[in-house]
Amino acid sequence: MQAVVVISLICAIGLIFGKIRILGVSLGVTFVFFIGIIAGHFGISIDQKVLLFAESFGLSLFVYSLGLQVGPGFMSAFRSGGVKLNTIGLGVILIGTAMAIIMSYALNIPLPDMMGVLCGATTNTPALGATQQTLAQMNIPTTVPALSCAVTYPLGVVGVILAIMLMQRFWVRKNDIAAPHSKHENNTFIATLHVQNPGVFDKDMHKLAEIAHVPFVISRLWRGGEVILPSNDTSLQEGDRVMIVTSRKDIDTMEAMIGKRESIDWNNENVDWNKVDSRLVSRRIIITRSEINGKRLGSLHLRNSYGINISRIYRSGMALLATPDLMLQVGDCVVVVGDERAVLKVEKVLGNAEGELNEPNLTAIYIGLALGLVLGAIPLTLPGITLPVKLGLAGGPIILGILMGIYGPRFHLVTYTTQSANLMLRAFGLSLYLACLGLNAGGDFFSTAFSATGLMWVGLGFLITLLPLLLVGFISMRVARMDFGTTCGMLCGAMANPMALNYANDTIPGEYASIAYATVYPLSMFARVVLAQVVLMLFM
């Protein structure tokens, strides 16, 4: 009971003070960490086993919930820029590691102490664990690296937030901040085309798909003043007008294949689809029936059974093409076009009982957490490395969360959680983790931090935190042309800093920071754990 009271009070006080704005800036949940340090400094403590459990559970819950939220859009984000994001993120890691090695030799600081500074400056406790394991195998004491990590950790947290603030103050221009829904518009593109190419005359939809070699949906067809909902057997004729849904990059291909595109902008959010033609209605229907979860759109035969068309499907902030092989998930928002009575029948098939989505799917959360922790505990043997490498408490759950978000429906697991429920889990896990982390570090924190050695550690750690972030952040925005939200998420992921990610999410619109964080975090965390061991083995 004492542990629950202490942790609850630390979290409550930290969250209250975290709302205070100084010069327009608040630290939010990050302030819990500093309240924990103060509590530890004044001798407040709890059972060490309980402390370790609460810290591990909080971190695992946070990263798993984050992975679950961004999972559905992860593959799309990775294909569109994941390789570039990870490459730039690795630059942060390599620059910081090189700085630590150079400082160790130039200032005659023992390398184990400097590796602790590096782990604290990059807020990476799995890397500290790998460092301690390697030192233990070498029969070298592990106490000092843990202490140097603790005293540099606070400025490691603040340094990433400060870097984001500096970039926002001096570098960010208006067009550097992507609109919250711009990725929706970029993922699908709607246009009307005039059928003019003789090569597609009398070709049905099946044949058209074979010719095109790009995904598309024709949602409406106008012929002789009447609107037709095309089926697979509908053939195009000269003079037809078709409304086509495809990706922005493929619209030119479709125009070259079918005919001239009209100048009407159908991608404006203010388009009233029910006024496009009085005989048809366009309605968004949310999938809430669990029987639909994991089924492919084509297997439902909605077009043939009810005479409707489905043009787009919205999922976790992404607009997807309604192709027959698309696997549906509970929580998907389906755009249905057709006669009103037919649309009502489809609504009954799909559910559209939005209130049911408020029920949290705890089964998927507990299963994913358990599997994520198992994955994190698996030792991985790498060539040339004598010690096995583990993904740990953070790496395993976030990878499992991403995989559950992507592939859970294939196993008929309902992984959908409302945004508010997911944010609640993330905030709870992060505050629990920070409270315990601060409480654990608070005992010797001030006496060490204000000694000559401690001050030197803090200063060097702050440089290792700030300089690589500013350098790589500038390259990301000005050379790689990434938006500010994506850049911040990538930097937070490369630094394994969930507190800074929380700050970025509070100040930058959209989910770009979270998606970039989840895209970069697994590889970055793995690279830091491996590098910590490699550096000690090569330079000791």
Name its key features:
single chain, 540 residues, alpha+beta, Na+/H+ antiporter like fold, Alpha-Beta Plaits, 2 domains, four-stranded antiparallel β-sheet, 19 helices, 8% strand
Distance between the termini: 45 Å
Which fold name fills CATH's third level, the topology of the largest domain? Na+/H+ antiporter like fold
The low-confidence parts are 181-186
CATH architecture of the largest domain: Up-down Bundle
- Derived from helix and strand composition plus strand pairing, the structural class reads alpha+beta
Main sheet: strand order: 1-4-2-3
Helix content: 55-70%
Content of β-strand: 5-15%
Give the CATH class of the largest domain: Mainly Alpha
Largest sheet: 4 strands, antiparallel
- The number of helices is 19
Query: What's the number of extended β-strand segments?
Result: 8
Shape: elongated
A few lines on this structure:
The chain is of the alpha+beta class.
Folded structure, characterized:
The protein is of the alpha+beta class and 540 residues long. The chain folds into two domains: 355 residues, Na+/H+ antiporter like fold; 175 residues, Alpha-Beta Plaits. Helix content is 58%, strand content 8%. Strands 1-4-2-3 form a four-stranded antiparallel beta sheet. Strands 5-8-6-7 form a four-stranded antiparallel beta sheet. α4 packs antiparallel against α5, α4 crosses α16 and α16 packs antiparallel against α17. It is elongated, with a radius of gyration of 27 Å. The relative contact order is 0.20. About 1% of the residues have low confidence.
